[in-house]
């Protein structure tokens, strides 16, 4: 029996280091997963959106390099069990680190400071790694382990089975 070998699915985008890139990358990642027919629970999709937003926001906000772009990548493992997302920027890897939220003026909680804590809570794994020109921040997610067969494929298989199945007719036997 010969099977079809699965390959990793990967997509890379280079985007401008600007706040407008955050929703753009978030939408592209979710749209790409849909195009690849990766089905997952809504909660997981929401977690992926949140983590993508946090990682891209941090890169936009804290990249101190002269590089005007960010490189983002989404990869789905060959066995479709894991999703990997990364952002590369030009800042050395000593930044950022998770830190506690701080109180600001007038005893208001500051807006920043919790992003990587959210990433750590939602992602399966995450890390910061040095690259030749800066750093890579990545996160992974476990994808559902059920067979990932798109609904249209399931419907097609059912239709073929129905057509190929013999028609069975049941006749009532006469009673004595």
TrEMBL record:
Coiled coil: none annotated. SUPFAM superfamilies: ATPase domain of HSP90 chaperone/DNA topoisomerase II/histidine kinase. InterPro entries: Anti-sigma-factor_SerPK, HATPase_C_sf, HATPase_dom. The keyword DNA-binding does not apply. Residues 19-140 form the Histidine kinase/HSP90-like ATPase domain. GO terms for molecular function: ATP binding; protein serine/threonine kinase activity. Keywords: ATP-binding, Kinase, Nucleotide-binding, Serine/threonine-protein kinase, Transferase. The keyword Mitochondrion does not apply. Pfam families: HATPase_c_2. This is ATP-binding protein.
